[in-house]
Design a protein that fits this description.
The complex is a heterodimer of chains A (about 280) and B (about 160).
Chain A (H helix, E strand, L loop, with lengths): L1 H25 L7 H83 L6 E9 L7 E4 L12 E4 L2 E9 L4 E5 L6 E6 L7 E6 L6 E5 L11 E4 L11 E13 L2 E8 L8 E5 L6
Antiparallel strand pairs in A: 1-2, 1-12, 2-5, 3-4, 3-12, 4-5, 6-7, 6-9, 7-8, 8-11, 9-10, 10-11
Chain B lengths: L3 H16 L13 H13 L1 H19 L5 H19 L5 H26 L5 H29 L8
Classes of the chains: A alpha+beta (about 280), B mainly alpha (about 160).
Chain lengths: ~280, ~160
């Protein structure tokens, strides 16, 4: 039986080979009928091919979209980072520009003081690093001290006017008592040529401005007048801007005429100060 | 080493008061972190701790000013001790207790400080002071409500149980 089965497989193989040889011989030229069969085959295959091709396209498209999305996301992150960096740089630039303007103003102040002061006054520029923690006694702490040439009683100036006086110094810090501090007093006078009345301007606890008591009960003083240092007392040189008269109270303390003075400098927004040597012997 | 958290709170409050607080002023009335921290400590740890901490904090502020050493120590120390007395009787975990104690304590402390200053030294613009102290009392009261958990954490849970 095995021999019969083996011979059947052998003859079947021979038949197949012969058929294929015949087929290839028949279809070797331009066979008629093959085109139709082929056409039928291709027509039958086409929808599947289209579907597969579409799916492939879709896969390619999704693949491309994912790749694009990943690239966009990466680019977006990069751009966001750049925006953040540029924002920080812009802020820093603005800060530097403003600081530059303030320091320039301090330099101008230094030059104008050199011309104004009758004595050779050394000066030190310093930055405000803290403020007085007390509600009623205003002051600032500066980042320069005796190691930088700062001395007690130096005059603290901002470009727009007088700020106060150095009250104490450590090697690397200096405390400035502001004009509005109740511990502070400065000799002042009305700048107006027709007045020139003098008095003492001092801080009062709880008050944001200065109180000024004039020596003359009939002092010629009115709201809007500018007050400058009088030079009396020897601590502050003459002619430094102190502030502007806001209101005048003719009889608040008996015979003494008093006025409220708004400081020339916004003492709540101090950042850099110029410390100037006080008059010799002051 | 049990004094370390107290010193930490003291330093933190003084540094905040000297650097950040001036920018938080509302209508020229800044909050007082130091006073608030002292009274919160008193509420949590009792009158002795509150008083001692208040005196230490007040001395710091007096030394910063450089004159009349002891003036602020008296006012803030008394406020801390009184807050401690309140804390020993009423549970300070209630927001209303903290708010009222610290607000009234602020008025008391500033009143003592300015009263002593007026009596011994200088001029006080009372009308301006009233407005500033009023606003500051409200501000400190709100701070006390907000900062209580922080002080508790810094003091490592030494609050009295209700």
């Amino acid at each position: 039986m095995r021999v019969i089965a083996a011979s059947r497989r052998f003859w079947a193989a021979i038949v197949v080979v012969l058929l294929l040889v015949g087929l290839q011989a028949v279809t070797g030229g331009s066979p008629r009928g093959v085109g139709a069969v082929r056409g039928l085959l291709l027509e039958a295959i086409a929808p599947f091919a289209t579907a597969v091709s579409g799916a492939e396209g879709a896969v390619r498209s999704v693949d491309a979209s994912v790749a694009e999305l990943v690239a966009l996301r990466s680019e977006n992150l990069k751009l966001q980072s750049q925006v953040t960096t540029l924002g920080q740089e812009s802020t820093a630039l603005q800060e530097l520009t403003q600081e530059n303007a303030r320091l320039r103003a301090l330099l101008d102040l230094k030059a104008s003081l050199t011309a104004l002061l009758p004595y050779p006054a050394g000066s030190v520029a310093a930055r405000v690093i803290a403020r007085s923690p007390s509600t009623w006694w205003s002051g600032v702490l500066l980042d320069k001290g005796s190691a930088d040439g700062v001395k007690a009683d130096m005059i603290a100036m901002a470009p727009s006017g007088l700020v106060g006086r150095v009250s104490s110094v450590t090697p690397h810090t200096a405390s400035v008592t502001l004009l509005t501090n109740p511990d502070s007093a400065v000799g002042g006078m009305v700048e107006r040529a027709s007045s020139r009345d003098a008095g003492v301007a001092f801080g009062v606890a709880g008050q944001t401005g200065l109180s000024m008591e004039f020596f003359d009960a009939q002092a010629d003083v009115q709201a809007g007048d500018t007050v400058v240092t009088s030079g009396l007392g020897g601590v502050f040189p003459k002619g430094l801007p102190v502030g502007q008269i806001v209101s005048v109270d003719p009889a608040r303390y008996g015979q003494v005429r008093t006025a409220l003075v708004a400081p020339a400098v916004d003492l709540a927004k101090l950042e850099e100060l110029l410390l100037v040597q006080s008059p010799p012997g002051g | 080493m049990s004094w370390l958290p107290t010193v930490a709170v003291l330093l933190l409050s003084v540094i905040c008061q000297a650097t950040v607080v001036p920018y938080l002023a509302v209508l020229h009335a800044p909050p007082d972190f130091v006073l608030t921290a002292v009274m919160l400590t008193g509420l949590i740890a009792g009158s002795a701790s509150g008083g001692a901490y208040g005196v230490a904090a007040g001395l710091c502020l007096d030394l910063w000013r450089g004159r009349q050493i002891g003036l602020m120590a008296i006012g803030i120390g008394l406020a801390g001790a009184l807050a401690g007395l309140v804390g020993e009787r009423v549970y300070p975990g209630r927001a209303g207790v903290r708010f009222l104690t610290v607000s009234l304590g602020t008025v008391l402390a500033q009143g003592i400080i300015l009263g002593l200053y007026r009596a011994t030294h200088g001029l006080v613009a009372w009308s301006a002071v009233e407005r500033t102290v009023g606003l500051q009392a409200l501000y400190n009261g709100v701070l006390a409500v907000i900062c209580y958990p922080l002080v508790i954490r810094l003091r490592r849970g030494v609050a009295p149980t209700p």
